[in-house]
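# step 3/5: fold
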Amino acid sequence: MEFKYTLDFSKKNQKYLLINLDINLYSNQDEIEIIMPVWSPGSYLIREYSRYLDLFEVKNNITYQKVNKNTWKIFTKNLNQVSLSYRLYCNEFTVRTNFIDDNHALIVGPATFLIPKNKELCKRYELKINLPNDWKNISTSLHQLGENRFYSDDTDYFLDCPIEVGNYDTYYFEVLEKKHKLSIIGPKIYDEKRIISDIEKIVYTTSKIMKGIPYDNYNFILHLTSDSKGGLEHNNSCVLHFSRWDLNNQSKYKSKFLSLISHEYFHLWNAKRIKPLDLVNIDYSKENYTNLLWVVEGFTSYFDDLILKRAGIYSNSEYLEVLSNVFEIYLKNKGRFYESLEDSSFYTWIKYYRKHENTNNQSISYYVKGAIFAWALDMEILNSSNCKNSIEDLILMLWNDYLENNKFGYTREIINKYASKLANKDLSDMFIQFLDAKEEIDYNRYLNYAGLELIVNDSNSPSINCDLKFDVNKVLITTVIDKGAGYYAGLCNGDEIIAINGYRVTNNNFYSIINSFNVGDKINILVSRDERLKELELELNKDDFSKIRILDNPNKNQKQLNIYNNWLKTI
């Protein structure tokens, strides 16, 4: 079969995308089934893209049947071509959904294109874009077929090439003789020379780690937004959202913006090519479960900032500050005692992308703990091999497997085997400790390899151990922290704190009242719960900690110094 689409933006002011699809049939088939994907690879949530679709029509009175929420059966006996059309409403501005306004459009493959239910049946996809007269640019990694016309001979690649259309600035640069395009959608309040220079450093440094670049062309599509942040990796491109107002904040520019670019760029190896066995053959119609997102996202979250250090964008002290913040996020999360790292990956479809007020008491992030595991594994390999090997060699072993067989998919056993080989000892117990167990880990053991130490600065300030929201003279409890003062007193998410010891509480005086007591004091706290007044006794506790920092010991022994220097070297 061949699927040929035409995109019509004539209703862009109404946020509609009109699509015509011509299906050429190679052989006589009594019927074909076509589907709208329900999720986008890299973003593990069923998004029900077909909810935006209407005006579905099969032309020439050809009979069809709606099978379920995202599947249509078309009766094609004695036909060699079928033509149909449909309309999509595009007003969800994220990196994995379609958005159209008067100035530009982001078109995401899985959210846009009807494909055969059996994706192996289609041998050719072609796309024509009817560019509005007032729009001038198209950015995509699809293969060029002609003016505003593109193609792909592979379903996965076709769906994995986002399309940016409209009016925006584009910049071109080369790294190691490979062509790169940067499209920036948003007001010209940025220094493109600075951004391109830093992206070049990221690309160059990553290519040195990975021993080359696996593409001829790469597209960075950057949306400057009012507040949203995020990114999504693709085979030869990435889509990025970043707050336009944070670009000139030096700290956020490095730790948020450049880290985001580094993260999505590293995914072109670790996610788009090196994959868990469970994700080698993607099914777009349902959840695709894997226990290995701690590699896909966790390892990438470790490498993204390490690459900035290797590129000379971070100093050693800046990088250790970033790593300290990762530990602080993790160690403030009580969910680490209730969910294993592997379970965090497996249940991402119903947990990570569907957070609620009690999430931090129940779950952990495979991004955060996965990054900590990757770091600890790096330290262990460096230490045990006397700096002959590192986690980079592990990624390169997986990369070589992919180069030998692009259908290669790794398993936990393969990761364990390769890591153990590099460390010259069996690391199975370490894998169990990080991936399966829920007990606290002695992180200083791994930090000490490089002459570092994790310091927890305890707070002696009294606390009810709840997250709060201050809303027009209301003090609302948003999260009751597991096994804290509020937890034992019986406070609930959603409670409004009315008074403490008979004194009215406001958003201006809450902390003044709390700080007038000491840790261990008992107070009476009056709350409104579903309009019912309830008074509880609470024994004030202290915060678990106020700050976590990694201290750098200046008096390292020679082995610690070697590990430290091999780890934080600049390429």
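# step 4/5: annotate
The longest strand covers residues 16-24.
# step 5/5: archive (pending)
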